[in-house]
Design goal:
With 389 residues, this protein is of the alpha/beta class. Helix 9 links the parallel strand 13 and strand 14. It is elongated. Helix 3 crosses helix 4, helix 5 packs parallel to helix 6 and helix 8 crosses helix 13. Strands 1, 2, 3, 4, 5, 6, 7, 8 and 9 form a 9-stranded mixed beta sheet that branches. The chain has a 6-stranded mixed beta sheet with strand order 14-13-10-11-12-15, with helices on both faces.
Amino acid sequence: MSVEYNCILIRFGEIFLKGHNRKFFEDLLICNIKSALKPLKYTFLRSQGRYYVEDAKEETSEIVSRLTRVFGIHSVSPAVKVRTDEEELFKTAIAMSPMTGKFRVTVKRADKRLPFTSAEMAGKIGGALLKASGGKLKVDLFDYDFELNVDIRDNGYSYLFYDKIPGAGGLPVGCSGSGMLLLSGGIDSPVAGWLMAKRGVRLNAIHFHSFPYTSELALQKVKDLAARLSGYTGGVKLFVVPFTEIQYAIHEKCPESFMITIMRRFMMRIAERIARREECGAIITGESLGQVASQTMQSMNVTNSVVTLPVFRPLIGFDKEEIIDISQKIDTFDISIRPYEDCCTVFLPKNPVIRPKIGEAVEYENRLDVDALIEDAVQRTTEEFITSK
């Protein structure tokens, strides 16, 4: 190709379906796009259900990479923008096309005032390419080596491109409120957060840190996961809760088999308290039904019973391979498998109870000063706003 891309087309997806509320979703998406491209220099335009990034001072690949992580974007295309003039279209098509192989031309004509149809213009551009190739090009509408797309808009300009690069899809982050993600250093919870962000939820995250039993490297691992998620969400506020004293108390006064269950109940109480303070509408966990012994219906019911906020478990029906596939797709897998343990593994019982009863959990918790332990942990919680690197 002997011409440079001077524009990037952005197409949005689901928000087409939002009817009278569409402006709210579009405004939020535009805000998120501009946040993702900060501090790059560019011009942002919109026309007829399309957004355009022009006059970019950075590499096109960097802008495309950032845009494809913005939820709400369906696809993007690096393009060449030219005036809607037949000779300009022919010249640009020839300059940016291989001169050998099988091809097709697809034209979309949004400007209905023009004196030709989409099919007629596709035929004219295809004819110009055939002539310029000296017989080395052939038209094949079904089995082609490349497809030249021409998008003719009503602003007097046309956009020529090859690729439609898939975006993240979903809904703009923030349109569905905020949630508090229980973020461990494992594979599951970052994927759960990503899935909820895809449905428009702005993420806060809470991590339970058991220093000195878990190292600063374990905490850094969690911060790196939050940074990776923030590439999709525009930033994550991370709360780090000191959890060692609570684990000590449970270990000393409660049966070993109930260690995980009661720990999870403490985590849910603390998460809810901070979530309400941050005006979050739900708690999010990475639990998957039956994946480990503590992730049974009975266990989830016992942990749910200590909070009143909704608890979202987007991975509930996923198997491990499905979760790993997503974690690799969103680039969290390599961070998650770093060999640094999180707090849940420190006092892990040999045989955790898999069908706990709420009454039993309450009975054992009566041996603890639950309110004092929670208050102390909340007071010593630190927070940090994490953005992508």
